[in-house]
Amino acid sequence: MSVIADAGASVVARPRRRVSFRAVFGLTVLLVIGGSAVWAPQLAPWDPGKQMLLKRLRPPMWQARGLREHPLGTDHLGRDILSRILYGGRISLGVGLTAVTLSALIGVTLGLLAGFFGGRADAFIMRIVDVFLAIPYILLAMGVVFALGPSLMNVILVMGATRWVQFARIVRADVLSIREREFVAGARARGNRPLRLLLRHVLPNALTPIIVVATLELAFMIIYESALSFLGLGVQPPTPTWGWMLADGRNYVATAWWLATLPGLAIMLTVLAVNLLGDWLRDTLDPRLKV
Amino acid sequence: MALLEVEGLRTQFATRAGTVRAVDGVSFAIERGEVLGLVGESGCGKSVTSLSIMRLVPPPGRVTAGRVLLEGESLLDKDAEAMRRVRGARIAMVFQEPMTSLNPVFTIGDQIAAAVLAHAGGRRRAAWERAVEMLDRVQVPSPRERARDYPHQLSGGLRQRAMIALALAPGPQVLIADEPTTALDVTIQAQILDLLRRLQAERGMAVLLITHDLGVVAELCHRVAIIYAGRIVEMAPAARIFEAPIHPYTRGLLRCLPHPSRFGQPLSSIEGAPPDLRQVNGGCRFAPRCPHALDSCRRDPPPLMERRPGHFVACPVVAV
User: Fold this and answer.
1) Which residues does A contribute to its contact with B (CB < 8 Å)?
2) Complex ipTM value
């Protein structure tokens, strides 16, 4: 932390910020994965649904029976793994991002209200949170998807509507301490409206944990979507998703390692990149840690 | 008509263990351009008095009786929105703790500019210029650069200057300063007091200075009200409080101050402790600690009477 009390200096020279490894790595990986998801139709060598039964279960090209036209091999129906991973990223990332945004919107709003206004609003909101925590979220998701039918939209809605409690609890706990800080009392004494107090003075100070939770949740959502797909409740086959590929490849893990490993690797890389980026973002957004 | 009048103010906290009578019939008035010191020890109701004026007493606290008049308008009768427009614009507050009373995630220029925009409107650019100007007015060196600093980058003294700039940006008529220098070291204290006095004189602003520090009072106040256990026990021009205090509590307080002539002797203190504000009944609240208490003191609260011109005392004991 630099304390600046130099009256004479007109411009305070700050050391040039070093390029953060976490930021560069996280951003690069995410851009590559995101870009390949967006441009999957141009990048993919094959139609991800095209079955070529004569070329079933071929390993990646660097292995003995590998084929050059299928760089990452084929699955039990002879579909090209690389193409399926590229297309699968669209679903995994898209569903993950929208579901996190949705659950953050719900959770942060309710958490802010509960923590800031306290009393009955708090009791009411937190009892709803307890109800959501008491029901296993997969069970809840199953119920809703059975009722509404498994579509992309419903999957996103269900994921957002079951995970918002994570945001609500963290935000509420943070707001409880922030609202007692003197600058909030000061802002109130300057005649700020409650909504403005909440949005300008409380929310920005609660941003750090929100970002951290959002990155963790994005990772979770990708896996959550996989779990729903695995149970047949997610996005329906033949649409490729990483989760479904992982679940599907499980049966062949002893004989064809690439079926489960490669989509798993894609999930892992994405989650890692998101977490690193979130970490870096948290440090950068907190002015107290700025040099 | 005085600028700010407080009459018979009573603020109580209804707790499970009983009702705490934090402020119990406090009356005073502040004229334009006057600095009134409200002096008392911790827990005597100084801060609750100021929060009651702003109508910001946290629950379960409630103002149960009395009037607060700003230019003759009753603040306690205003609706929430009208009261909100009084806060900051007409009565501003400066708090004790400069570490925590600025929002850590915005630059101080941003915060002052936001206060200017909220009260005067106008363009962002102009508000920013006004913020820089305010920082200059409170003698922050190189204000244009400092405006871009976050609170944690400033020293305690600079932060308190920024707080004052923030409070004064909308041009309030009354400034309530709640222990503005308590958290600062002595040399910075003197600078801040000097600044407050200058700004107060320049703007003809009324100041209610809340403090437990009699040194600060001597430095800045025109008049002083001594408060004990939620009641004003003595109110007089500052010079009189120091030269000819009448109330036994005031005299006890002054004896507690270290003085060079008593070098080497232990500091004196007032015997006993302040009463439990849940269990006070009739009578003078200082009576249990008072060496001169009469039987009548314990029965009925002595009224605040004008013993000399401008010198009010709530004590029947004349000769000491």
Assistant:
1) 1-5, 7-12, 181-183, 185-193, 200-201, 204-205, 207, 287-288, 290
2) 0.79
